[in-house]
């Protein structure tokens, strides 16, 4: 089994790094380590460039997990040349896009503490994000949600990564808020995001170091997506 070291798990602010090509498949380029987040948990995959030693820049159009779930495939633009196995590359993510994803993903964690209801789904794109709640439509008020999230953002609070065992998570099922996404398990451990006095739940995505970096949000719309799904969509203010 080929495993890609996920550098973003320890430092989501890494914009550049170096890596070695392990393989090139029909789907993409497999690296031994990466700063590119692969699509998952509702968060879009990163884009950017793989840079060859002579300076040629290979555009990465998307990033996905491989079929094993342990490797990360960097999907190149159709017209980009393919590197060779063993080649050393520099990695550059589209930082402006990634930082928007980080801010919006963290904002959804804050919103999940404002709207107290089971989460049935979610999605984070660079320009907007949403959560689906199992809640009566009459209990969702756009102004109250917006004001509640922005009040927490204005206070500021650090975020931190916490690891627990799979057994500990099984003993605390209340930590899992998102019904549609499995907690990120690996090597017997589960990765949690903690925002003191605000949120604690399993999450494998990338987040800002302090909720103040979100800078505020606005609720774009609230609509029903079925009997058990009421969707709240937000954007950065």
Q: Give the structural class.
A: alpha+beta
The share of residues in extended strands comes to: 35-45%
Mean pLDDT: 93
- The quaternary organization reads as single chain
**Shape-level CATH architecture of the largest domain:** 2-Layer Sandwich
CATH superfamily of the largest domain: Threonyl-trna Synthetase, Chain A, domain 2
Q: Summarize the biggest pleated sheet.
A: 6 strands, antiparallel, barrel
Task: Give the C-level CATH assignment of the largest domain.
Answer: Alpha Beta
Number of strands: 16
Helix and strand pattern? EEEEEEEEHEEHEHEEEEE
Tags for this entry?
Threonyl-tRNA Synthetase, Chain A, domain 2; 3 helices; Elongation Factor Tu (Ef-tu), domain 3; 2 domains; 237 residues
What does this structure look like?
With 237 residues, the chain is of the alpha+beta class. The protein has two domains: 5-93, Elongation Factor Tu (Ef-tu), domain 3 (Beta Barrel), CATH 2.40.30.130; 98-236, Threonyl-trna Synthetase, Chain A, domain 2 (Threonyl-tRNA Synthetase, Chain A, domain 2), CATH 3.30.980.10. It contains three helices and 16 strands. It has helices at 95-114, 142-155, 166-171, and strands at residues 5-6, 16-24, 29-31, 33-34, 48-51, 57-65, 72-76, 88-93, 119-124, 129-133, 160-165, 185-186, 189-195, 199-202, 217-224, 230-236. The protein has a six-stranded antiparallel beta barrel. It has a four-stranded antiparallel beta sheet with strand order 9-10-16-15, covered by helices on one side. Strands 11, 12, 13 and 14 form a four-stranded antiparallel beta sheet that branches. Helix 1 (95-114) packs across helix 2 (142-155). The mean pLDDT is 93.
């Amino acid at each position: 089994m080929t495993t890609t070291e996920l550098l973003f798990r320890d430092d989501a602010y890494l914009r550049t790094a170096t890596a070695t090509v392990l393989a090139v498949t029909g789907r993409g380029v497999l690296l031994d380590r990466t700063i590119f987040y692969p699509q998952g948990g509702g968060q879009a995959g990163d884009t950017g460039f793989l840079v060859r030693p002579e300076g040629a820049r290979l555009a990465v159009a998307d990033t996905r997990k491989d079929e094993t779930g342990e490797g990360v495939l960097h999907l190149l633009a159709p017209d980009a040349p393919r590197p060779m196995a063993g080649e050393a590359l520099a990695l550059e993510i589209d930082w402006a896009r990634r930082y928007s994803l980080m801010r919006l993903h963290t904002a959804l964690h804050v919103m999940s503490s404002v709207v107290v209801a089971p989460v049935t789904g979610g999605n984070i794109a660079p320009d907007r994000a949403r959560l689906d709640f199992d809640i009566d439509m009459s209990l969702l008020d756009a102004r109250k949600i917006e004001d509640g999230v922005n009040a927490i953002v204005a206070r500021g609070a650090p975020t931190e990564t916490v690891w627990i065992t799979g057994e500990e998570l099984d003993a605390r099922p209340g930590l899992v808020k998102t019904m549609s996404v499995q907690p990120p398990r690996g090597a017997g451990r589960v990765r949690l995001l903690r925002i003191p006095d605000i949120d604690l739940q399993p999450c494998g995505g990338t987040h800002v170091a302090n909720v103040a970096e979100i800078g505020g949000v606005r609720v774009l719309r609230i609509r029903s997506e079925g009997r058990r799904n009421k969707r709240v969509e937000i954007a950065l203010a």
